[in-house]
Amino acid sequence: MQRALATVGRVSTEPLRCAGALIADHDGRIFFQRRSPHRRLFPDCWDIVGGHLEPGEDIDEALRREITEETGWVLSHVLGQVGEYSYVGADGLARTEYDFLVRVDGDLDRPTLEAGKHTEFRWLAEHEVAMLDEHRDVDDGLIRRIAEEGFAVLRSIGR
């Protein structure tokens, strides 16, 4: 596992790895949640489910863990890879994010949002992605681009 800090205290040149889930429902919508306004990265922005890989964890394990931690749902199956994104966060750390279009098991009307990290959720149809540009100055439109690619994958598999 790549780490943000080397054991001798130097900053690593390796990017942090992240796994992200674009959770699709059977109506062709994708799940988004709003990050709390006090979050260090992308405060008060809409986001997909996901986060950093923990030490010793692979992408599949992180994807499963993040879905359950952030929504209470359980990964059912991966429909396809949406993309791989590299960026430097406001904290100055480089990240590589691997995003997947997925289906989950659970009550899709009642996610259990991770306390203190997310304030609300929405299921968006493809024609509603402009909403994700709210606070674009914070994320430079990254979430909207990821959403558009997620909807393209969803269309390609016929929902």
UniProtKB/TrEMBL annotation:
SUPFAM superfamilies: Nudix. One of its GO terms (molecular function) is hydrolase activity. InterPro entries: Nudix_hydrolase, NUDIX_hydrolase-like_dom_sf, NUDIX_hydrolase_CS, NUDIX_hydrolase_dom. Keywords: Hydrolase. Residues 14-146 form the Nudix hydrolase domain. It comes from the Bacteria. Belongs to the Nudix hydrolase family. This is NUDIX hydrolase. It comes from Micromonospora arborensis.
